[in-house]
Amino acid sequence: MTTTFELITRSPEETQALGRELGKLVQSGDLILLVGDLGAGKTCFTQGIAWGIGFEGYASSPSFVLVREYRGRLNLYHADLYRLDNVEEIADLGLDDYLDGPGILVVEWANKALDSFPPEHLRIHFEHMTENERRLRFEPHGPRYQRLVEQLMTGISTDCHSRESGNPLPSPLDSCLRRNDTEGKNWNFR
Ligand SMILES: Nc1ncnc2c1ncn2[C@@H]1O[C@H](COP(=O)(O)OP(=O)(O)OP(=O)(O)O)[C@@H](O)[C@H]1O
Ligand SMILES: [Mg+2]
User: At what angle do helices 143-156 and 12-25 cross, to 10 degrees?
Assistant: First the structure.
């Protein structure tokens, strides 16, 4: 059984905050594939993951270097396939070799070569809705990622809507994010 989760973020800070919560939960060897159009929030989310593993700087788009590395309690390898179109070329890069070390791999534009990655991974679809709203759909592939997503969603909200895969009902979409506004910039989840 696979459960996917969808939620809407309403600002870049919310997307970063969500990434940060995921970054706190990831373990070495985790593979996270990001799918979505230009400006949909993939780099923004990755920035949050980097903060969640304890990296203190800014994560920029790796479009020109292919893979960037950020260090925290483990390494985050951040790849972007935007400029690559040839599936064999992408497969030849052997990006999943990064998973052998003490780190996680996050790949933007992973839809360009989904089949060249290990079948077990967390796939996250990003959709641009309005200027400041992005829909994120978390799709775990494999038991490790099912647990990871459940942990994430339990952590951020007790009333997050979930959907069994294959359920024909339209999934409810609601922001699961709670803002804990002390100074306008601190985002917390229940
Ligand atoms: N809710 C939101 N979540 C994320 N980004 C948002 C949101 N609302 C507005 N934005 C803006 O959308 C843009 C997202 O850019 P980002 O670089 O993260 O997208 P991307 O998916 O990585 O794009 P690309 O495919 O070009 O790499 C930023 O300018 C950000 O400020
Ligand atoms: Mg990007």
Answer: 130
CATH code assigned to 3-164:
3.40.50.300
Q: Which is the closest atom of ligand 1 to the Cα of 38?
A: 25
Distance 140 CA to ligand 1 centre (A): 22
Instruction: Note down pLDDT in tens along the chain; length 190 residues.
Output: 678 889 999 999 999 999 999 999 999 999 999 999 999 999 999 999 999 999 998 888 766 678 899 999 999 999 999 988 888 888 888 888 899 989 999 999 999 999 999 999 999 999 999 999 999 999 999 999 999 999 998 887 644 444 444 433 233 334 444 333 333 333 344 3
Amino acid at residue number 15: T
Q: Is 42 in the pocket of ligand 1 (CB under 6 A)?
A: yes
Question: How many whole angstroms from 168 Cα to the centroid of ligand 2?
Answer: 32
The pTM (predicted TM-score) of the whole model is: 0.85
Residue 47: count of CB within 10 angstroms of its CB:
25
